[in-house]
Design brief:
The structure holds two protein chains of two kinds. Chain A has one domain. Chain A is built from five helices and no strands. The two termini of chain A are about 15 Å apart. By secondary structure, chain A is mostly helical. Helix content of chain A is about 75%, strand content about 0%. By secondary structure, chain B is of the alpha+beta class. Among the domains of chain B are: about 35 residues; about 120 residues, Penicillin amidase (Acylase) alpha subunit, N-terminal domain. Helix content of chain B is about 35%, strand content about 20%. Chain B contains 25 helices and 29 strands. In chain B, the strands form six sheets. An eleven-stranded mixed β-sheet of chain B has the order 1-29-2-3-7-8-9-10-18-19-21, with helices on one face. In chain B, strands 4, 5, 22, 25, 26, 27 and 28 form a seven-stranded antiparallel β-sheet that branches. Chain B has a four-stranded mixed β-sheet with strand order 16-17-11-20, with no helix packed on it. The longest helix of chain B has 28 residues. Chain B is globular and about 90 Å long. Classes of the chains: A mainly alpha, B alpha+beta. At the A-B interface, helix 2, helix 3, helix 4 and helix 5 of A face helix 1 and helix 2 of B.
């Protein structure tokens, strides 16, 4: 549950703040997010990967639709692909990696100061 | 452990950002490029780009309205001239920013800065030819004239108002791909744009080649192969050939001098001599409805973004429409409510070379008569993307820059050559266009042209009141016979240009009895014109076909004029085929060669898209002329060029034993034709085998429109279009009618125009190349010309309103 909310929040903040930040806002936003909010490492990575990745997928898909794939098809030829759709996939992957790596960096920074408590056997709560 | 993780992940994140934030080798910065909020995705044009805008700026005095019509042609309405040019600058910036940047970089030798070492030689070439010297001289001249200064500054502010509204995500795609940022526009860049055109249109000469040729062949043979004028029946000069010249010319006398004997093989890259154009005007007596008609189609290299941009400029006292160049003010080829005008290149040798003798190795002085004159030295820093700067020493003399020296394409320490070129001289061509845009009649046209120097143009003119005129207009040195045809001795003042043809003596005519004026880059005048003429690039076919078509009908319509512009008749083919392929010759051939000869002799000589004969002829003339002049190249054994096609024809006609062709291995004309036909058959068969299709002309020619920076997917191949060079529809594989316009000067002018390309310079816009197919089919847009903004308010694609701040 928390995982889904975090993922959506990351996507949302990256989307809103993105245009005012350099492109690597896609790294910085998830990093900052997981400096502030605690998480397990693997969950942080997945939130960042999915949050930013899906955002980049959605944005590039929507811009490409609005443009009738006119530019993406030409750009694809430059990269040796035959269709702009390949660039949407690459953008998705790149956004995912950016978000995932950023999230991990943020998570590991937080761990320096506020390490996650080791789960106690039979404990009542978890992080 | 936690520290280790932190170091690992943060290093990973940093490395990822760095790797994708900067270009790696030839690859652009991928993070920047692919980010949907910053990268190329932002460049794809969408509906929102057509939304209307309201912009508040400080640089203007009153409100400005711009209505873009269905073709994205802006109709600009301003309350004063400066605001109008502000708006022109803004609009050109908005739709052609990268092109403006790239062209002015090319003209100032700064391409390597953004491209890398591949363009270093091009940059050195540009700088050593003194393009910047010319641009700075012109800038000074522009700024000395308060009127030009005010307008050029307003234009500059307009471009910069647009540039300053941009952030990275808005940069044209080429900036993102090449990894650099737009820099502010300056008046110097507008001057550079005009120099770019000057270089395009006059930046080529044959002085070294002529020198090599005359030494190898002797004067007599040289004059036979490269005559200054053609026989009367083949000559159809710009100004009617019956014209009498009733002024007394400024005299020059041929000094008693000997041209230096040199032999040179390494020649700098020069502009394409195919850059040319057609224009003409018909008097009211020559048109069906009794209104003057003016037509113009400039032929240039075919590129995206197109070199032209259609625009309509309105301010009190001015309603002009037509095409402009990105970076220039006003309309360059177009019309207003009272007059129409157009340009073709007025070919005449305005580039000469002087051999320079330096006093010593310091190269700080050079010989001139019995004195030593001082040189000036400039260190040119050429920045190179990804490498250290290249430093070049540019030495200038009173002639101009020393282009060839020990550091550049020179055979020896002693072989130094300076370039004298009218493009270096101070002049204010911009003022001519500012004035033409507002001109009301013939007198205004004459006054406007008096400021125009380089690149010399044939300015055609028609007015609503019924006048037509044509002026061969530019700054032309008065030369004695052969002056500047060969490389000259810079140490003797006798070789120097002394004077220029006075403006009043320029070849011109107004309302000639034949009812029309016309030009197509041919000889400007008959041989009786009292000033010496020389040019190695005259066009010898389009002019004759054009005048024949204009004379064919008593009175012509607008449609007739469009048909003339897109006429595909190959006069060269007609003359060659009729001379060389008579029935006896055909009977003498065998197999495929015979089939081709038969096809050519039955051909109607039209280079239409589906014509196979047009392809046959193209290959045939290629082999024929190659074979004919093969011995010439061997004999000269240095840089040379072949005699003109028309002269080759005349010589072949005159002498079937080929006595005129140096070192030829052919017994006679028949042997030459036989060999060339056999080669043609082979070559055509190879083409068919390779492409597995019929050699139809459009496929065979494969007209391509390349992107300015050679980014392949931003260009277009295989445009389905007929024509060729030396044909009125002068569309070859990479060159052609870059703009076509026909204007009928009715009470309200009716104008038709088109160019290959589109209004937007953005490869992600539908307006990038949307006019190309229409252009290829020979169709036109009807230009929507009205002086009232209310005519555009009801039906527009996009509107931009500017409001002054307070």
């Amino acid at each position: 549950m928390y995982f889904l909310i975090k993922t959506i929040l990351i996507a949302f903040i990256t989307w809103i703040a993105g245009p005012t930040l350099p492109w690597y806002g896609a790294v910085i936003v998830p990093m900052a997010f997981f400096i502030i909010f605690p998480s397990k490492g693997i969950n942080a990575f997945l939130s960042g990967f999915l949050g930013v990745g899906l955002l980049w997928l959605a944005l590039s898909f929507q811009l490409n639709e609005a443009n009738g794939s006119l530019l993406a098809d030409k750009m694809a030829l430059l990269f040796g692909f035959n269709s702009g759709n390949w660039l949407i996939l690459i953008t998705w992957g790149l956004g995912g990696i950016a978000g995932g790596i950023g999230a991990l960096a943020g998570y590991s920074a937080r761990q320096l100061v506020f390490p996650n408590k080791k789960k106690e056997r039979g404990g009542y709560y978890s992080a | 452990m936690r520290i280790f993780k932190f170091l690992l992940f943060s290093t990973l994140a940093l490395a990822f950002v760095l790797a994708l934030n900067f270009p790696i080798q030839d690859y652009p910065a991928l993070g920047k490029l692919l980010s949907p909020t910053h990268g190329f995705w932002q460049n794809g044009e969408t509906e929102t780009d057509l939304e209307s805008e309201r912009i508040i700026v400080t640089a203007i005095k009153d409100e400005i309205e711009i209505y873009f019509d269905e073709h994205l042609i802006p109709h600009i309405f301003a309350d004063n001239e400066a605001d109008m040019y502000f708006a022109q600058g803004y609009v050109l910036g908005k739709y052609r920013l990268w092109q403006m940047d790239f062209i002015t970089r090319a003209a100032s030798g700064r391409l390597s800065e953004i491209v890398g070492p591949a363009t270093l030689d091009m940059d050195r070439n540009t700088r050593r030819q003194g393009m910047m010297i010319g641009a700075e001289a012109s800038l000074k001249e522009m700024m000395r004239d308060p009127y030009t200064e005010e307008m050029v500054n307003a234009y500059t502010e307009g471009v910069n108002a647009y540039i300053s509204s941009l952030t990275f995500k808005d940069y044209p795609i080429e900036f993102k791909l090449l990894g650099y940022e737009p820099e502010p526009w300056t008046p110097l860049k507008s001057a550079l744009l005009l120099k770019y055109m000057a270089d395009n249109l006059t930046g080529t000469d044959k002085d070294f080649e002529n020198t090599n040729l005359v030494q190898a062949l002797g004067q007599e043979v040289f004059d036979l192969l490269y005559p200054d004028f053609y026989p009367k029946e083949y000559s159809e000069p710009v100004i009617s050939k019956t014209k009498k010249w009733d002024f007394s010319p400024v005299k020059v006398t041929k000094p008693d001098v000997i041209f230096p004997s040199i032999k040179k093989d390494s020649i700098i890259a020069q502009s394409n001599p195919d850059n040319g154009s057609n224009n003409w005007a018909l008097s009211p007596l020559k048109t069906k409805d009794g209104h003057p008609i003016l037509a113009n189609d400039p032929h240039l290299g075919l590129n995206f973004p197109s070199i032209w941009f259609m625009i309509h400029l309105n301010s009190p006292g001015q309603q002009s429409m037509g095409v402009t160049l990105p970076g220039a003010l006003g309309v360059i080829s177009g019309f207003n409510e009272s007059i129409a005008w157009g340009v073709t290149n007025a070919t005449r040798d305005v580039r000469d070379w002087y051999k320079i003798e330096f006093k010593d190795e310091s190269r700080s002085e050079y010989a001139f008569d019995d004195k030593w004159l001082k040189t000036q030295k400039y260190i040119e820093e050429i920045k190179i993307k990804g490498e250290e700067s290249f430093f070049d020493t540019l030495i200038t003399t009173h002639y101009g820059p020393v282009v060839y020296d020990k550091n550049y394409k020179s055979e020896s320490e002693k072989a130094n050559y300076a370039l004298r070129w009218t493009a270096h001289d101070p002049s204010n061509e911009q003022k001519t266009f500012l004035m033409l845009n507002k001109a009301k009649d013939y007198d205004d046209y004459v006054e406007a042209l008096s400021f125009y120097q380089c690149p010399a143009q044939n300015f055609v003119f028609a007015s609503k009141s019924g006048d037509i005129a044509l002026t061969v207009n530019g700054r032309y040195p008065i030369k004695w016979e052969n002056q500047g045809k060969y490389v000259m001795d810079g140490s003797q003042s006798a070789f120097e240009w002394s004077n220029f043809i006075p403006y009043e003596h320029l070849p011109r005519e107004k309302n000639p009895p034949r009812g029309y004026v016309s030009s197509a880059n041919q000889h400007p005048h008959n041989a009786e014109y009292p000033y010496y003429f020389y040019d190695p690039f005259t066009s010898d076919y389009r002019n004759r076909r054009l005048n024949a078509l204009l004379e064919e009908k008593e009175r012509l319509t607008v449609e007739d004029n469009k048909r003339i512009q897109t006429d595909n008749y190959n006069l060269m083919a007609q003359e060659y085929v009729q001379l060389l392929l008579d029935s006896a010759t055909i009977a003498n051939q065998k197999g495929e060669a015979k089939n081709i000869a038969v096809a050519l002799s039955n051909w109607n000589y039209f280079n239409e898209v589906g014509s196979k004969e047009a392809s046959y002829f193209e290959v045939f003339q290629h082999f024929l002329l190659g074979n004919l002049w093969k011995g010439l190249g061997e004999k000269v054994d240095a840089a040379y060029y072949r005699p003109a096609k028309l002269q080759s024809y005349l010589l072949l006609k005159e002498d079937s034993t080929l006595g005129f062709a140096p070192n030829t291995s052919f017994r006679n004309r028949d042997a030459l034709v036989k060999e060339s036909l056999a080669q043609t058959a082979d070559s055509i068969n190879n083409w068919i085998a390779k492409y597995e299709m019929e050699p139809k002309w459009a496929d065979f020619k494969n007209t391509s429109i390349t992107h300015l920076a050679r980014i392949a997917p931003f260009g277009m191949e295989g445009v389905n279009v007929g024509g060729n060079k030396d044909i009125l529809n002068a569309t070859s594989s990479s060159h052609g009618a870059s703009w076509r316009m026909v204007v009928e000067m009715r009470n309200k002018p009716e104008a038709y125009g088109i160019y290959p390309g589109g209004q937007s310079g953005n490869p992600g816009s539908t307006f990038y190349d949307n006019l190309t197919e229409k252009w290829a089919r020979g169709e036109y847009l009807s230009l929507n010309f009205s002086s009232s903004p209310s005519d555009y308010r009801l039906n527009f694609l996009k509107r931009i309103e500017f409001k002054p701040e307070n």
